[in-house]
Amino acid sequence: DAKTTQPNSMESNEEEPVHLPCNHSTISGTDYIHWYRQLPSQGPEYVIHGLTSNVNNRMASLAIAEDRKSSTLILHRATLRDAAVYYCILINYGGSQGNLIFGKGTKLSVKP
Amino acid sequence: DVKVTQSSRYLVKRTGEKVFLECVQDMDHENMFWYRQDPGLGLRLIYFSYDVKMKEKGDIPEGYSVSREKKERFSLILESASTNQTSMYLCASSLVQDSEKLFFGSGTQLSVL
Lengths: 112, 113
Known about the structure:
Helix content of chain A is about 0%, strand content about 45%. Chain A is mainly β. In chain A, strand 5 (about 55) and strand 6 form a beta hairpin. The radius of gyration of chain A is 13 Å and the shape is globular. Chain B has strands spanning about 5, 10-15, 20-25, 30-40, 40-50, 55, 65-70, 75-80, 85-95, 105, 110. In chain B, the strands form two sheets. In chain B, strands 2, 4, 5, 6, 9, 10 and 11 form a seven-stranded mixed sheet that branches. Chain B is globular and about 40 Å long. Classes of the chains: A mainly beta, B mainly beta. Chains A and B meet through strand 3 and strand 4 of A and strand 4, strand 5, strand 9 and strand 10 of B.
């Protein structure tokens, strides 16, 4: 699977939008972009994924650049419960069989 | 909601002991996984299983074995625990048709003294 690059940490204020960037310049045409997050003392949880088009769900939005070499996870209104480590992962469906390679992620801090 | 339950939240064992970490999922998932998580190293895959009695080695299988006698249960075994196996162990499961959407347990923090 191709490599991703994320900032080590970011800070946000409560109730403000947060944009978490991810660079993946070596992404292949069949790689999906997945985001997971890990709250303190919890296992990771799935957030969102996409291939080419922007995606929205109840947790977040995923904006994918036209050339697919970068993407941004958007939390529309950060809450204190969104403080977590966010992982951007590229997955070649059928090739990974669920064997996901988690990098170091971005640690998001949310200030009241 | 899918629930993945790990039997212990914290475990303390002595060097040389045989250690069993149990994981149970309640959503009939075919795939199950064992990861370990260490500061600065992220999550690393130890073993995974696509079906009952099937197992595949992940990236760091040395010193570990697994057992999957029933679909809902996946056990990680440390045959002779060593101090470098002190870590957070995370179990996960997924459906075959949605294999990249993993559901994780809360983890077991194992300390080997």
